[in-house]
Amino acid sequence: xxxxxxxxAVSVGFAALLLVLAIASGSHVLARQTAALFASGPAVLxxxxxxxxxxxxxxxxxxxxxxxxxxxxxSTVLGVAAGFGLQAAGILVRGVWSQAPLGTVLLDPxxxxxxxxxxxxxxxxxLWRRRIRVIGFTGLVAVLLSSDEPADACRLAxxxxxxxxxxLLARRLPRMTWRRSSHHEVRNLLAAVVGVTAVGPFVAxxxxxxxxxxxxxxxxxxxxxxxxxxxxxxxxxxxAPGACARGVALLHAxxxxxxxxxxxxxxxxxxxxxxxxxxxRAAAVLAVALEALIAVLTAVAFGVLPAVRAALTGxxxxxxxxxxxxxxxxxxxxxAVVLLHxxxxxxxxxxxxxxxxxxxxxxxVVVGSAAxxxxxxxxxxxxxxxxxxxxxxxxxxxxxPVGFLHLAALGPTPVLQPAHLVDDWIGPLLWAVVLxxxxxxxxxxxxASVDGGRRLRSLLREGGxxxxxxxxxxxxxxxxxxxxxxxxxxxxxxGGVAIALGEPVGVPDGRVDAARAFAAACVDRxxxxxxxxxxxxxxxxxxxxxxxxxxxxxxxxxxDPRGFAPSAEWTRDVRTAADRAAxxxxxxxxxxxxxCSPNRRAQIVAMxxxxxxxxxxxxxxxxxxxxxxxxxxxxxLMLAVDGEGRVLAATSWLPTWRKGVLVGWTLDLxxxxxxxxxxxxxxxxxxxxxxxxxxxxxxxxxxTSPPSTSGDRTDVLLDRLLDTVAExxxxxxxxxxxxxVKARFQPAAVPLVLAHPDSLALPATGVALTRAYLPxxxxxxxxxxxxxxx
Length: 790
What we know:
Blueprint: H1 2-7, H2 9-25, H3 42-63, H4 65-92, H5 110-121, H6 126-146, H7 150-169, H8 183-206, H9 215-221, H10 228-236, H11 241-253, H12 256-277, H13 281-313, H14 321-340, H15 351-377, H16 388-393, H17 417-443, H18 450-462, E1 478-481, E2 487-494, E3 497-501, E4 505-506, H19 511-524, E5 528-535, H20 536-545, E6 549-559, H21 572-583, E7 587-591, H22 598-613, E8 636-641, E9 647-658, E10 661-672, H23 680-694, E11 699-705, H24 716-731, H25 738-743, E12 748-756, H26 762-773, H27 779-789
Parallel strand pairs: 3-5, 10-11
Antiparallel strand pairs: 1-2, 2-3, 2-4, 5-12, 6-11, 6-12, 7-8, 8-9, 9-10
Helix pairs in contact: 2-3, 3-4, 3-5, 4-5, 4-7, 5-6, 5-7, 6-7, 6-8, 8-9, 8-12, 8-14, 10-11, 12-13, 12-17, 13-14, 15-17, 21-23, 24-26
């Protein structure tokens, strides 16, 4: 506790000072403007102070004590001045979104916290720099547009001031260019943005006095129905029969289901954000649909209907055009951004799951609509007879958020209990199904069924030939099982080519027959079968069993751990480099993702993101995993950790099994921090080789390298494409010189080949392999790659 207070002395002291000032001024008991997510009162002040202390404390660890104090004061003074200036400008132009700051007691601890954390982002690494700025400014803007209280404008202005001050302190002004992100990070950022837009309407509602441009979104999900006492007062006024009749009609339309429906809608959007964070494409598509629906509902409720009603009555349309435009644009833009980045969501759902969810939603709509129409046609349910066309016309309102009703022309309203029950609950029932579907899509994946995953892992333990066999478990691919269930083949379907990853796993004597059966199944589906990165021995067995041709695609760098001994001459360079790192206090830690502390996990993710953001090689897929693949409990990690607990380098290792016995490890992910000590990679690899030697394993694979010769390649385009892919795969390991590090271990070069049945399909196969490794390749990058190859 003492160490925490010492590291965050300015933040804690600043929070304590604000608390003393609040008590001295009496503002802690006044109805004051504060963070829009909370109500006013003493409890809110305590929450705000704790949040400010935590946020500023994190910033203080990067900025230091003096710079944190300077940034906090400067951003507060300039932010409040700029915020009040924005509010005053809004008043001058008669903006309905502007709230007058005069007479407001403003003591908001989050204003200096916003400035400090944005300043600290300039000093943070690329990963947290982007996260702080994207998520931070998205939240600040969303709160401002949703509530627009004086503190909201001041927080946003303080954040901008802090961003500029941080750039000056770091001597690196913020650039407008967007740094490249990993697929993992793109998913996290988009999920955060979708989550913020789901929370925004609630912010607009809980704001005590705000009237932000996004307040229409809040009105869509609020319950605008009048209280019974209000309706009674209207009906007591003999001069307002129309208001009395409408109030009674609104009361008849009210109910718990109507209030629950918008909550279910926004909860479904939050569930979509959760699924997006885990790479679920179906969740991203559903989020796009929901965001688009919110934009359409806002346009209809606050644009189309008021304009139509004004045209019919001859009255001028007095709706707020700026509010309506912004409230429509925000969800529409979010939907467009997610749609443009769908390629980053690789995990596809099972078709039967999509069909089941679609059938459930359709059944709820059909049955609910039929019940609503049937009840409407019953005599007395609505106090009088209703025509069929009237019952059909009022049906869409049953599925729209209840806020839609306060601007809609109310039709017949239920009087008896059956009509009340049906009217109130068919909408929430549909949105409950949507919410359940969003939660199901979070866990469902076409390549990760429980039964298929267990069968595949069981066969991998029986026999996973080659060093890349465990990659069959990675998401994004599909699995084919032989009829007898003794073998399985992991493959990717790209551009009409079925690319099998490695050899069939399972019983050794059935692998060739399984390959032939798989090829026949592919031909029946109109696909070209291809076996990628298989051993030359297996390739020759295929050619002997049918019309298959072989192409060299790479060499597996394999180290025999039994020869890695201190007395061996060839280990001298490796041990010299490893000893150099060890003398500087760096130790090798053998663990797994589940065994890492949250702090170590965050450092591994940051190293991976830094490599991509700082202009490293693009993220590859297929046979090169990333952070997502580390979560498998079967995957091991070897970390280089210094005396202060910092992770300087990280490597991941995939297992290979034979008859239930572990026989080897294969290097997959390799990351090294920019300030890592020389020799850390040699230390990690040497530690794994020594561990494999002590455990009696047969091999340690350092990954695939480009072939030393092109072999017997007859297609020039395929030749160049495969060489380009192999070189990108080598660079994609994450080290500046992976080949040089591997060479110190003097690995044996085991040839890997591509087996294909049709030479005419070779160019298409080469393009399919390129797309398999670079599934997120943009059109511009694809044109650049093809130009380079030609």
